[in-house]
């Protein structure tokens, strides 16, 4: 839904890195290289960014009853 502010496992701040990660991957760079450049070496942090799916726009179209 919304990008986590911190890694669920180790607690490293990640929220500020997602926009850069997404922009560079959409530009055609390899995700692994982007994560290396951002300084994410722990696999828990890498998993958090790579596995994130933005569903917030799809969820917001439904009304709450």
Cα-based radius of gyration, to the nearest Å: 13 Å
How many distinct folded domains?
A: 1
The CATH homologous superfamily corresponds to Homeodomain-like
For the biggest sheet, the summary is: none
> How many H/I helices?
4
Low-pLDDT stretches: none
Distance N to C terminus? 20 Å
Helix content: 40-55%
Q: What is the N-to-C succession of helices and strands?
A: HHHH
The CATH architecture category equals Orthogonal Bundle
Structural class: mainly alpha
Keywords:
65 residues, 4 helices, 43% helix
Question: Can you lay out the helices and strands and say which pair or pack?
Answer:
Layout: H1 18-26, H2 31-37, H3 43-50, H4 56-59
GO molecular function: DNA binding; DNA-directed RNA polymerase activity; zinc ion binding
Subcellular location: Cytoplasm
Binding site for Zn(2+): 7, 10, 44-45
Question: Can you walk me through this structure?
Answer:
There is one protein chain. This protein is mainly α and 65 residues long. The chain has one domain (1-65): Arc Repressor Mutant, subunit A, CATH 1.10.10. The protein is built from four helices and no strands. The mean pLDDT is 88. Zn(2+) binds at residues 7, 10, 44-45.
């Amino acid at each position: 839904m919304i990008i986590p502010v911190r890694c669920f496992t180790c607690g490293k701040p990640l929220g500020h890195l997602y926009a850069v990660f997404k922009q560079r991957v959409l530009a055609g760079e390899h995700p692994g290289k982007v994560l290396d450049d951002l300084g994410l070496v722990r696999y828990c942090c890498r998993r958090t960014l790579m596995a994130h799916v933005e569903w917030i726009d799809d969820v917001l179209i439904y009304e709450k009853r």
